[in-house]
Amino acid sequence: xxxxxxQSDHVGDRAPQSLGWLLDERASAGRENLDAxxxxxxxxxxxxxxxxxVRLLQGLGLGxxxxxxxxxxxxGQFTLAVAPICSRVVAVDVSPVMQERLREKVxxxxxxxxxxxxxxFLTYEHxxxxxxxxxxxxxxxxxxxxxxxxxxxxxxxxxxxxxxxRLWDVVYSFxxxxxxxxxxxxxxxxxxGIETDWSRAELEEHxxxxxxxxxWLLEPxxxxxxFRIEDTDYSxxxxxxxYVARRL
Length: 248
Ligand SMILES: C[S@@+](CC[C@H](N)C(=O)[O-])C[C@H]1O[C@@H](n2cnc3c(N)ncnc32)[C@H](O)[C@@H]1O
Known about the structure:
This protein is α/β, with parallel strands linked by helices. 33% of the residues lie in helices and 21% in strands. The chain has eight helices and seven strands. It has a seven-stranded mixed β-sheet, with helices on both faces. Residues 6-14 have low confidence and may be disordered.
């Protein structure tokens, strides 16, 4: 096969769905996120500290005129916490089961400024006012690293210059030769009550089947995708990272 480089074959104008090489985001959304039983008990298992997150963003200028995008919104803990504060919140998720739960919660609430969109990081198309605050918690790790960079670059296109990205995920801040010890310690924290806690099997599944990466790989990716990281916070066990970044 003859390889040619520097071709000018331009694909930028084609709809992403027509690209045969595009990742199937639903297939990589995480087994549990497509499972109705898991989704029904998600809020009992996981408290994302959404009110604290909203307060943090208020300190960075979030207010009544802000447009907010929640990517990988899940059951909408953050979406529903931010809705009373902002002008518009778009809650995007690729899992139909999560979207259904989210829509039920939005309908049961009094908030009429929430839009639920069935799409992924790689297919969501934003319209209307540019995004002032983008939020994503525990979702980006569902994409392999190449696709994380594409997700971040796409996201940047929807955001105003100076807009804030709050990213919180399972991101490893240890060195490669520490991995076995750190991962094993984390998996050992798994509880037995799967209805209200993350089990060891679920944590093992996360490491084995999902795409959490190292902080020292993700951070250059964030910056190369058009953001400046302003704040970094690593958990003591080296498993979680939280960022505040600004769109350049
Ligand atoms: C662990 S849940 C987190 C939900 C919520 N952000 C929270 O903090 O509670 C991960 C969510 O990301 C969604 N997800 C996975 N891959 C995605 C993708 N490529 N695009 C958008 N959402 C995705 C899943 O369907 C799931 O709802």
